[in-house]
């Protein structure tokens, strides 16, 4: 990736479904009080560099829209560009379900999966290759300093693509909601905000 890019990557704040272990995918749930506090902490931290940000790019899904709106209250950020290429990976008919729900409705489908690769076992969800392709296209289109607000799994793919990681290495990257990831000069560095 070009060293002329600098990306500050934020995951949306915790949602009700995150807290209850329900996978959201393309569906949405409201931010929890903790999620609002996480977004506020990111906003406070990013306010110091807001004037240097060339573009604010965010997933169009509701939980990211809310997180982005909260972040924007802390500084003079560019107007958001709603970018579907960094929306969360859909697991199709599994969106909105828990692991227990999936096991009950699709017995054995999650056998021999890891906590990181089960997303791509859905009978009608997005494939790893399709998700990685859209993320890579988005990364290749960027210039300058970009604040990106996205999701857990998609955030793993963004960082994995940036670092040219193998699939398994990308999928096991951490996805905290109180961290800003700085992608610059071929490196990814965490910035804790709490």
Overview of the structural elements:
The protein has helices at residues 16-20, 33-47, 62-72, 99-105, 128-141, 152-163, 167-171, and strands at 5-11, 55-58, 80-82, 144-150, 179-184, 187-192. It has one domain (5-192): 3-Layer(aba) Sandwich (Rossmann fold). The two termini are 29 Å apart. The protein has 194 residues and is an alpha/beta fold. α5 (128-141) crosses α6 (152-163). The model has no long low-confidence stretch (mean pLDDT 94). It is built from seven helices and six strands, in the order βααβαβααβααββ.
Describe the structure concisely:
The protein has 194 residues and is an alpha/beta fold. It has one domain (5-192): Phosphoglycerate mutase-like (Rossmann fold).
Task: Quickly list its features.
alpha/beta; six-stranded mixed β-sheet; Rossmann fold; 7 helices; 194 residues
């Amino acid at each position: 990736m070009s060293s002329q890019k600098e990306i500050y990557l934020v995951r949306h704040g915790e949602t009700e479904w995150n807290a209850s272990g329900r996978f959201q995918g393309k569906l949405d749930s409201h931010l929890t009080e903790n999620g609002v506090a996480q977004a506020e902490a990111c906003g406070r931290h990013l306010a110091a560099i807001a004037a240097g940000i060339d573009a604010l790019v965010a997933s169009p899904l509701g939980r990211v829209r809310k997180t982005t709106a909260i972040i924007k209250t802390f500084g003079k950020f560019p107007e958001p560009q709603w970018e579907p290429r960094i929306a969360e990976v859909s697991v199709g008919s599994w969106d909105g379900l828990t692991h227990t729900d999936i096991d009950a409705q699709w017995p054995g489908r999650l056998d021999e999966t890891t906590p990181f690769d089960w997303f791509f076992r859905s009978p009608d969800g997005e494939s790893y290759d399709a998700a990685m392709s859209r993320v890579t296209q988005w990364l290749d289109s960027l210039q300058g300093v970009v604040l990106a607000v996205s999701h857990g799994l998609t955030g793993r793919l963004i960082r994995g693509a940036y670092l040219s990681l193998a699939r398994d290495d990308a999928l096991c990257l951490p996805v905290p909601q109180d961290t800003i990831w700085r992608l610059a000069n071929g490196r990814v560095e965490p910035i804790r905000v709490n």
